[in-house]
Write a structure and sequence with these properties.
The chain is α/β, with parallel strands linked by helices. Bound molecules: iron/sulfur cluster. The site of iron/sulfur cluster (SF4) has 11 residues, from helix 1.
């Protein structure tokens, strides 16, 4: 049976990680080790609650009226939601369009991304950098899977369902690096691009 390892569920978020009122479900685990990861502290040794698709749906449905009124819904974040590919697919099938489903992801997991994106309403993709050396320096892992997944999305023409987030990462990226990343994703047909500065805690 498909299960989620849920760290926490944050309700009543407004226009922060999806349209309208959303419930953010933070799942455990990530293949990356970002230097400034604030979630890493949360993830290491964090207690999780195992939830089935049905159990999660029951929790989420508390806010169904808000979702309907505002066009909101659930956002899976983490951690890396794509580690729960089968469970999220099952969840989206079960929701069957009752409310919006958004996935915040680094795309650094080798799964059938176009199939999931077709089923979901939206991906928020944290690209970090399209430069392999910068990406590896910051995350400890190459960006080959990320780039391959971006290309797969581009090939099936689903770029319109994606928001691409490109951060300015202190000590890792320059303005030129960010411009190169923006041009790279634009070249693949992504138009909704959000550049922002990571807030680094001392
Ligand atoms: S992708 Fe997100 S959760 Fe994973 S290490 Fe990076 S910042 Fe942390």
């Amino acid at each position: 049976m498909e299960m989620f390892d849920v760290i926490t569920i944050d309700r009543h978020r407004f226009h922060t990680d999806g349209k309208g009122v959303t419930t953010l479900v933070i799942v455990s685990g990530c293949p990356l080790k970002c230097r400034y990861c604030i979630n890493g502290r949360l993830l290491s040794g964090a207690k999780t609650k195992k939830m089935t698709v049905e159990e999660l749906l029951q929790r989420i449905m508390q806010d169904y009226c808000y979702f309907v009124a505002t066009g909101g819904g659930i956002t899976f974040g983490g951690g890396e939601p794509l580690l729960y590919y089968d469970a999220i697919m099952a969840f989206i099938r079960r929701v069957n369009g009752m409310f919006a489903t958004t996935i915040e992801t680094s795309l650094s997991v080798d799964v059938d991304v176009p199939k999931l994106l077709e089923a979901a309403d939206r991906f928020i993709i944290d690209v970090k950098s399209t430069d392999c050396a910068i990406y590896r320096g910051y995350t400890g892992t190459g960006n080959e899977i990320l780039l391959s997944n971006l290309e797969k999305i581009s090939r099936v023409g689903l770029q319109g369902k994606c928001v691409i987030r490109i951060p300015d990462i202190k000590d890792f990226t320059t303005g030129e690096d960010i411009e190169r990343s923006v041009n790279y994703v634009r070249g693949l047909g992504f138009e909704n691009i959000d550049c922002f500065a990571y807030k680094v805690e001392d």
